Every structure is written in structure tokens, then in C-alpha cells.
Amino acid sequence: MIEADGLIKSFQSVRALDGAGFIARDGEVTGLIGPNGAGKTTALRILYTVMRPDAGAARVDGLDTVADRRKVQERVGVLPDSLGLYPRLTGREHIRYYGRLHGLGGNSLERRIDELIELLDMGEFADRRAKGFSKGQTRKVTLARALVHEPPNLMLDEPTNGLDIPSSRAVHKLIRRIRDQGRCVLFCSHIMQEVAAISERIVVIAKGRVVAAGTQGELLAQTGQSDLEEMFLSVTGAPAESW
Amino acid sequence: MWRRVIVVFAKEVVDNIRDRRSLLLALVYPLMGPVLLGVMIALVTGMVLAYPRGHVRLWVQGGEFAPELMAFLEDEGATIRTAPDDPEAHVRRGRLKHVVVIPETFRSEFAAQRPATVKLFVNSSRLSGLVAVNQTIDLLEAYSREVGGRRLAERGVDPQVAQPVTIENVSVTRGTHLGDLFLLMVPPFIIFTVFMGGVYLAIDTTSGERERGSLEPLLINPIERTGLMLGKFMAALLFTAVAVIVQLIAFKIIFYFAGGAGSTFDRNLGPGAMLGIFMVALPLMMLAVAVQVIIATVTRSFKEAQTYLGLLPLVPAIPGMALVFAPVQEQTWMMTLPAFSQTLVFGTFMRGEVPGLGPTLVSMSATALVALLLVALAAWLYEREQLIFGG
């Protein structure tokens, strides 16, 4: 379970988060959606421990992301905002590196790597060096290394950004599969169709605050709108026809 | 924590062994100094050895006006050649190293027992002529003394009366003076390598990692950031140490071939001195890598880091270069200065002496202390949130 509780975070004079709070439950996919610059990435960065909130708290399985950073890191798998690979390491070596950093090793790690290569259909390029990988191949490697320690919580920042349709579908399938294992998935996106397609719950964030949250039906009922895009525009306060 | 530090260390080593630029800095750049010095030693020793006493080749104009002098020179083993016309132009253009010109007036002045002039045309801008010129001057002076002594004896005077002072050169160093100069160029080269050997790796593993976008995912792994920094630090330290070892071995090989087996060069850089230099250099390597990590952490891009770190090795090497030409008297306080103290200790080794244990320990511990403070600063910088953005 992933919880954000009244998160506040400023960068110089810009207030990126202004009291955002939400919960992502186990066995569910929670989609975080909002306009560009709404604070989605900052919220995730606090949740996955690379940033500290100015006020408020972030918890993963009840553990504070600041006070219990190491323990939280053991319990999350993350596809962060930046997805760089090491050009001189192979796909397999990337997954092995992260596995070892999680304290795994030996045959069990190698078996786990083989499983992930199979699961993500990486056989063709797993032993090639990452220099020259396509976006889809890069994404698969970063997903595999985020999943190597079988984390109970998964956080994905724009997981299908820049991917073609088959690759996006593969990622969606993987997300559902992880949810079906009873794990918690929190992902952010700015594409409403994607959020609608795979999330049980939607959290709409704008100007650093949560402006609406609930299932698709709840959100439509709360706002009296007939479709999710209209709902989104009405809660984020953006003009319907801005241009 | 240490198990994961080793994981980071191992990954960075493998990653950078596959990188041509890291290897170039650690394995090829350190060879530049030894090769340069080797060429210089070979050229200079070649100049000295090419003109052994007794094999002076003398270009002379007007030799017929001083037959007795010519006979003396040939007795001393010089080969006399008749110089072409306009000897001055030949010397100026470098076709001849030097020419002895005996004017026609020599004969009459010599016969009248007045000082007879001999002109020596030399080109002092050419180093290679210096040794031969000195030998020629020695020969001419020897002749002058001999004739002068003979004339005094004819008048019943002891020739020693005309020689009130005898100069005896006593060199206090074990080798030749020229050799010392080259030996003292070794320390600044080593200091340069200490600050250069791991620089690419230090940048690549911090600024480079950030620029590639691989730093943020890395930071989410369950390892303390200090541990992460230490793994990278140790990898850069390893490359630095390899660079210094490569350079020391290269110096050894070059000195053996350029100076000859058993020469001052070969003798002074023995296995003991090499080990001593490496040990004394170790704390400085830690300091250098810590500085590199710090700069790579606070700069925003690979290029920015490269700009600063490209200049860095020159600064600590400059005092060493100055010391080659203007040696200083060692003082204890100097041993507390990182880079400078190592330059002095390396210099002692290179002169064929063993540095005192006290000063050496002061140098090592003072530098190690500064290095530890810098490592602590690097760890603090790694803890900051700005790490993923730079600055």
C-alpha cells in the first residue's frame, strides 16, 4: 500500500505540491493523472524516496519514506522519470546489478533474471550491450530491473511514454498481471485513455493538490459529467476549448 | 553495507574497463611522461657521448699561421679539418658546430711573444654544440698554459707562480648534475598522473550517470548513498592506482634503456623506491579522487565537470616543475601540504636517498586527513536532494 498524506514540496519559489494526499491499495492499479506540471512526478519522487517532503508524509506499507528509507526501497519497484541505461552493460547485466543491490545473488538471481527475460520477451537483445537499444527495448530492461526483487509495490512514471502500440499493450498486460498477484501498482500518466483502460482508481492532481479521486463511476457521478475527459477538464479548472 | 559497496565497485570497474576513454587515461596517458623524459635523456646523453675526449673534430681556418698549435691539437687527438670560407655563416646556419679561426697576425704576435688572438665561432643557441665547444676551449687553454709555462721556464721562473689558484671540482651528488635534473622531473609527472588517472571514471560515474538518466533509478536501490559514493570512489581509486603503477614501471623501463643498466637513472628508481613512491602517493590518490567526485557532483553536466577536472592535474604538478630548477630546503611544515610534500618525498627517492620516516609519516597522515574530510564532504553532497539535478 502506498500513501501520500498532505505532501508539500517547493522548489525555490515554485510550490510543486500543495498538500496532495491519496492512497493506492494492494491488488489495485491506481492511476495518477494531471496536467503537465501538476506535481505528479514530484509526488512519485517523494514516494520512491529520492526526495523529501517539506511537510506531510509518504508511506509505503506503513513505513515512512524518510525515516525508513532503506526498508521502503526494499519494498518498491520503480520505473522513474529518468530511464537511463549503461551503454556498455548488457540488458542481463543491468538486471543483475539491481538484483545484487537488493542483496540477491547466485543461482536464484540468475533464475529470476531468466524469468524476467522470458516474461518481457527480451531474449533477442538481453545479452547485447544497451548502446543502441530502441525505446521499447530500453523500457523492458528498466521494467525488468525494477521487478527483479519482486517488490510488493510498483510505481511507474509514464510507463508507456514514447512506446508504440504493441509495446504499450505489453506494458498494460504486465501491470494487470502484477495487480492480479495482489500487489499495489501506482502509475502516473497524462493520457486519460490509458488511465481509464487499466486503473481501478483514478486520482486527479492539479496545481499540487488532489482535486478528485475515486473509481471511474464515482468520478463521473461526483462531477455530473458523461465522460472522463470532460470530468478531467472540469475538476482541473482548465478551459474546455483553450485554443 | 560493504557487500553492496563492492557490488557498485565491481559494476563500475567492469563498465569502465569496457570504456576506451577510461583505459586511455589509466594505461596510455601515464606513458607520456616516461617517453618524453626518455627521449630527452637519450638526446642529452647522446650529445655527451658523441664527443668523447680525444675525438674532437676541429674545423680550422688559417691553420697554416700556427703550425705548432696544430701539431699540439693533433697530439691531443683532435682531427683537424680545414674550414670552408665564411665560417661565421656556416656556424650561424648550424652546418658547423664551431670553427677556430687563426688570423694572419697570429704568426707575428706569437713570434713576438705578445698575446696572439685565436677566434672561436660558436652558436650558443645550439645545446648540442656546447660539449664540443668546452672541449675545444679546454684544448686551446692547455696549449696556452703549456707555451706560457715554457716561456717562463726559459726566463728561469717556476711556471707554478703563474698559476695561483687550482680549481678542483667535487660533485656532492651520486650522479651527474644533468641526470639529477631529469630525475627531479619524475615527481611532477607522478603528481599529474595521480590527479589524472581516475578522472574520467570519477566524472562518468557521477555527472555521466546523472546525464544518462541512470542515477535516479540507481538511488532507489536499498543502499546508503554514502555506500554508493564509496563504491564509485573505490573504482576511481583503483584506476588511479593502476595509472601510477603503469607510469612507475614505464619510468623504470625507459630509464633502463635510455640511461643504461646500473646508471643513476636505473639505480635510483629501484624496486624499493618504486614501492615507497607508491605508498606515499596513496593518500594523495584518495585526495585526488575525492576532489574529482566532489566536482563531478556539483557540476551540472559531463562537459562542465570535464572542463574543471581537465585543468586540475596541472595545479598540483606546477610546484614540482618549479622545484626541478629551484630546489628548496625541506622544512617540516612543508610535509603537511598535500601534493607538495609528496613531490619533495618523491624527489628524495629520485636522488637516490631514503626519505626520513618522520617527515614521510607527516606527509602521509596530513594528506590522508584532508582526503578523509573531502570524502566526508562528497558523502554529504551525495545525500543532498540536488544530487539528481546537479548543482
What does this protein structure show overall?
- In chain A, the strands form two sheets. A six-stranded mixed beta sheet of chain A has the order 6-7-8-3-9-10, sandwiched between helices. Chain A has a four-stranded antiparallel beta sheet with strand order 2-1-4-5, with helices on one face.
- The longest helix of chain A is centred in the last third of the chain and has 16 residues, at 165-180.
- Chain A has helices at residues 40-47, 69-75, 91-101, 106-119, 135-147, 165-180, 192-198, 216-223, 228-236; strands at residues 2-11, 14-24, 29-33, 55-60, 63-64, 76-79, 153-157, 184-189, 201-206, 209-214.
- By secondary structure, chain A is an alpha/beta fold.
- Chain A has a domain at 2-84 and 153-236: Rossmann fold (3-Layer(aba) Sandwich).
- In chain A, helix 8 (216-223) packs across helix 9.
- In chain A, strand 4 (55-60) and strand 5 form a beta hairpin.
- The radius of gyration of chain A is 18 Å and the shape is globular.
- By secondary structure, chain B is mostly helical.
- Chain B has two domains: 2-45 and 176-388, no CATH class; 51-162, D-Maltodextrin-Binding Protein, domain 2.
- Chain B has helices spanning 2-17, 20-50, 67-75, 87-92, 105-111, 130-154, 177-183, 186-196, 199-212, 215-219, 225-259, 264-268, 271-298, 302-311, 314-325, 340-350, 357-383; strands at residues 57-61, 79-82, 98-101, 119-122.
- In chain B, helix 8 runs antiparallel to helix 15, helix 8 packs across helix 16 (340-350) and helix 9 (199-212) packs antiparallel against helix 14 (302-311).
- The longest helix of chain B is centred in the middle third of the chain and has 35 residues, at 225-259.
- Chain B is elongated and about 100 Å long.
- The model of chain B has no long low-confidence stretch (mean pLDDT 87).
- The chains are: A alpha/beta (243), B mainly alpha (391).
- The interface between A and B is medium-sized, with 31 and 25 residues.
